[in-house]
């Protein structure tokens, strides 16, 4: 069997894996990435259809000086071809009810959103005082949902419906599934210093840019290469057996970082190598978060807003974006692309995916009469082994496993309050700093 050696072997080239590689190779370590798919990036990549570039998962990506994601690119001098949503002074989030809309701005913010939902400035101010206390004095615990927390102060249906869309879009589950504490951690962190944007030539362009910089520093990246087994001796990781084109290879490594999710990591390394408390935590709240992702092409934008549109009073639709408003490079001339995200009624299942998809279609028809002119070219359901997130928000696994020098990165161990791309990049930063402290 073929053998090779690396300081660090990384399984999976999603954001957690590829950002780990960038940071570690900057620190002078010899790094190998193996990826089972023919392309890089996992759920931060690109599919193409008749000149339309659509995402495999992540829509808006973090950028700016405070972004841990962008920092990985900057460390290696990799091109980071992103454009802020809608340009420098535009974009943001539009909250849409059937009869009215509200655009979130730095000036009107959360207070204005609450006033909009309640259609009453005084009532909005009173509710805002409860939010403010939860944000700055006594953060709610994780033993009730955000829906239960909100119901203490108001049963207004517009309010609950708007936050159903917000929680579904920005946290990843339904309002009655999200722990109250996790909602407020996420809301507090939404005031972070970085912004959001769209990859000008698609997410895969970013992933390829970072991969090229890694290779230029001597890193090895092997696509269409599956991990067959993580090798463990006396409780210490020793590397892994991988396979490409039917040929197996043993990669000996001092450290192994898995971006394949905690469940698969345990399976590959053998459950006998993981002690009881870790396995108990792994099985508790071990729900993957599913979403339905639909991309469509139109001659005119369905929603001509350069940001995220979040909905209230829908069957399943939680938000949509028209990335071609910001980046026309993503589509053929004269075309636009719209992407939507939706959450099933029960994130823990049963998913009832055909029913969920049909309800999204009905929602789009209700809000957008011109939707009937759209050409649907991509309908994806992220669940099971390819979920939106590998762990329920608020219940992550630790990055460090009981097997010495074996780590997890990615959305299975995202820090509390964070979701998505930035969360995965933070796990990469933390694990890389532990392996090779500055």
List the helices and strands and how they pair.
Layout: E1 2-11, H1 15-26, E2 31-34, E3 46-49, E4 52-55, E5 61-63, H2 68-76, E6 82-84, E7 93-97, E8 100-104, H3 109-118, H4 121-136, H5 146-151, H6 157-170, H7 180-189, E9 195-199, H8 203-216, E10 220-222, E11 226-233, E12 236-244, E13 247-258, H9 262-269, H10 276-283, E14 291-298, E15 308-311, E16 317-321, H11 323-326, E17 336-342, H12 353-367, E18 375-382, E19 406-408, H13 420-435
Parallel strand pairs: 1-2, 1-13, 2-10, 7-15, 13-19
Antiparallel strand pairs: 3-4, 5-9, 6-9, 7-8, 11-12, 12-13, 14-17, 14-18, 15-16, 16-17
Helix pairs in contact: 1-2, 1-8, 1-13, 3-4
Overview of this protein structure:
With 438 residues, the chain is an alpha/beta fold. Helix 3 crosses helix 4. Strands 1, 2, 10, 11, 12, 13 and 19 form a seven-stranded mixed beta sheet that branches. A seven-stranded mixed beta sheet has the order 8-7-15-16-17-14-18. Strands 5-9-6 form a three-stranded antiparallel beta sheet. It folds into two domains: 2-81 and 200-285 and 390-435, FAD/NAD(P)-binding domain; 85-195 and 289-388, Polyamine Oxidase, Chain A, domain 2 (Alpha-Beta Complex). It starts with a strand and ends with a helix. The protein has 13 helices and 19 strands.
Task: Produce a short descriptive summary.
By secondary structure, the chain is an alpha/beta fold.
């Amino acid at each position: 069997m073929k053998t090779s050696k690396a300081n660090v072997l990384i399984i999976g080239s999603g954001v957690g894996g590829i950002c780990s590689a960038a940071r570690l190779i900057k620190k002078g370590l010899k790094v190998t990435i193996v990826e089972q798919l023919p392309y890089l990036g996992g759920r931060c990549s690109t599919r193409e259809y008749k000149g339309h570039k659509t995402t495999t998962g992540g829509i808006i990506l973090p950028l700016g000086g405070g972004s841990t994601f962008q920092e990985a690119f900057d460390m290696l001098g990799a091109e980071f071809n992103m454009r802020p949503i809608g340009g420098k002074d535009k974009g943001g989030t539009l909250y849409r009810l059937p009869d009215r809309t509200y655009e979130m701005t730095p000036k009107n913010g959360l207070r204005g959103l609450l006033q909009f939902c309640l259609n009453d400035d005084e009532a909005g101010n009173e509710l805002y005082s409860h939010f403010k206390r939860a944000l700055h004095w006594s953060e709610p615990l994780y033993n009730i949902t955000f829906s239960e927390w909100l119901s203490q102060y108001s049963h207004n249906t517009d309010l609950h419906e708007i936050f159903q869309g917000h929680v579904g879009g920005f946290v990843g589950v339904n309002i009655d599934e999200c722990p109250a504490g996790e909602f407020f951690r996420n809301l507090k962190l939404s005031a972070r210093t970085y912004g959001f944007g769209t990859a000008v030539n698609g997410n895969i362009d970013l992933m390829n840019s970072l991969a090229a910089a890694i290779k230029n520093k001597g890193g090895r990246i092997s696509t269409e290469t599956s991990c067959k087994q993580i090798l463990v001796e006396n409780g210490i990781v020793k590397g892994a057996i991988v396979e490409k084109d039917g040929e197996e290879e043993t990669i000996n490594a001092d450290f192994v970082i898995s971006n394949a999710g905690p469940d698969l990591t345990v399976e590959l390394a053998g459950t006998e190598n993981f002690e009881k408390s870790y396995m108990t935590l792994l099985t508790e709240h071990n729900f993957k978060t599913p979403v339905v992702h639909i991309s469509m092409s139109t001659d005119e934008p369905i929603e001509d807003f350069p940001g995220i549109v979040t909905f209230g009073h829908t069957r399943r639709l939680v938000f949509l974006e028209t990335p071609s408003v910001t980046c026309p490079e993503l589509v053929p001339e004269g075309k636009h692309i719209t992407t939507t995200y939706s959450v099933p009624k029960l994130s823990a299942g049963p998913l009832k995916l055909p029913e969920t998809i049909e309800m999204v279609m009905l929602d789009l028809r209700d809000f957008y009469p011109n939707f009937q002119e759209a050409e649907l070219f991509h309908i994806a359901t992220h669940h099971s082994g390819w979920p939106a997130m590998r762990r329920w928000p608020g219940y992550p696994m630790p990055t460090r496993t009981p097997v010495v020098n074996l780590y997890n990165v990615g959305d299975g161990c995202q820090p509390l309050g964070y979701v998505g791309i930035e969360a995965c990049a933070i796990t990469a930063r933390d694990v890389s700093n532990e392996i090779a402290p500055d």
